[in-house]
TrEMBL record:
Source organism of the structure: Nocardioides islandensis
A GO CC term assigned to this protein in UniProt: plasma membrane
Record keywords, A-Z: Cell membrane, Membrane, Transmembrane, Transmembrane helix
Membrane topology term: Multi-pass membrane protein
PANTHER family: INTEGRAL MEMBRANE PROTEIN-RELATED, PILUS ASSEMBLE PROTEIN
Record carries keyword Transmembrane: yes
TM spans (from-to): 6-27, 110-129, 135-157, 288-312
Record localization: Cell membrane
Residue span, Type II secretion system protein GspF domain: 177-299
Chief place of localization: membrane
Lineage: superkingdom: Bacteria
Protein name listed in UniProt: Type II secretion system F family protein
Length: 313
């Protein structure tokens, strides 16, 4: 091949590379759909956002997700077929305030199971190298580790639900009082809800922001609060949402209802604290009986014992 043909070939390859780089730069510079749409729908609930509106991940883990994602999703489907209960998982995800789908949670459970499998596999390998275990027992132990990891992921979600509901109970009296003050000052339910959401921060405020977003999209106030009552797992918040819905529908004094509910929650919290202290009374006696009392008896009788040993020949 002549020198001119080699130069033409290299020029064509260089031009093709430059065209590919330019095309990729144009694609990168093009604004994503989420960047163009999300500023106009930022008040909408974030749970259940479709894949088209999710920001495209730009971290290095996206490559790992692309490689291992199909395998993990297949394993998650298998776990879903074995365990079932997709509706229960969806409800617990809503109650925990976790922005995940059921399949994403199942994938997370599979990851928990793989961690348990890895730990038990490492332990089994060490036992096998030491000559204390066989291959069959190690395989059974690895299977048990995978199952324990999957169940640990489910228990972790239940723990998240309990912690969030505990925080909501702690926030509820303050939020209810703020709503009552705003309504008593002459604001409507929607304006009062907007003011409280802007002035407060917490899990209950996040739920109220979802209610406010639903109202702004055209849903009636009573229907939005009924949805909150059906979604939440805290009975106090459910009664609060039902009371607000009834007050809006029938025109009853909303401020009195909110003050009464806040007082009921504080009274319930005080009663629960007293009941917890009564249940822990026996455990509170353990250090007194087994630590403080023996030390007191020792201090009382030890000088007498020493005196008797000195006086008696």
């Amino acid at each position: 091949m002549s020198l001119g043909l080699w130069g033409a070939l290299l020029g064509a390859v260089g031009a093709a590379g430059l065209l590919l780089v330019a095309a990729r730069v144009m694609v990168i510079r093009k604004p994503q759909l989420s960047v163009r749409v999300l500023p106009y729908v930022r008040d909408l609930p974030q749970v259940g956002r479709t894949a088209a509106l999710r920001p495209v991940p730009g971290d290095p883990t996206s490559a790992a997700v692309g490689v291992f994602g199909p395998v993990l999703r297949s394993a998650a489907d298998a776990v879903e077929k074995v365990l079932g209960g997709a509706s229960s998982v969806r409800r617990r995800l809503d109650r925990a305030g976790v922005d995940k789908t059921v399949q994403e949670f199942r994938v997370e459970q599979v990851v928990w199971g793989l961690v348990g499998f890895a730990v038990t596999a490492a332990y089994g390998l060490l036992r096998t190298l030491g000559g204390d275990a066989g291959v069959l027992s190690s395989l059974v132990l690895c299977g048990v580790g995978f199952v324990v990891g999957v169940m640990a992921g489910d228990n972790h979600l239940s723990g998240q639900v309990k912690q969030r509901e505990r925080r909501i109970l702690a926030e509820f009296p303050t939020v209810a009082e703020l709503l009552a003050l705003a309504v008593a000052a002459g604001e409507g339910p929607v304006a009062a809800l907007d003011r409280v959401c802007r002035r407060s921060n917490g899990d209950l405020s996040a739920d109220l922001e979802r209610v406010l977003a639903a109202v702004r999209t055209g849903e009636p106030v009573s229907s939005a609060f009924d949805t909150l009552a059906a979604r939440t797992g805290v009975p106090v918040v459910a009664r609060f949402a039902q009371g607000v819905a009834v007050a809006v529908e029938r025109g009853t004094p909303l401020a009195d209802v909110l003050h009464a509910q806040a007082a009921d929650v504080r009274e319930a919290a005080r009663r629960e604290l007293i009941e917890t202290a009564a249940r822990k009374e026996v455990f509170m006696m353990v250090p007194v009986v087994f630590l403080v009392l023996p030390v007191t008896v020792l201090f009382a009788f030890f000088p007498g014992v020493i005196g008797l040993s000195l006086t008696i020949p």
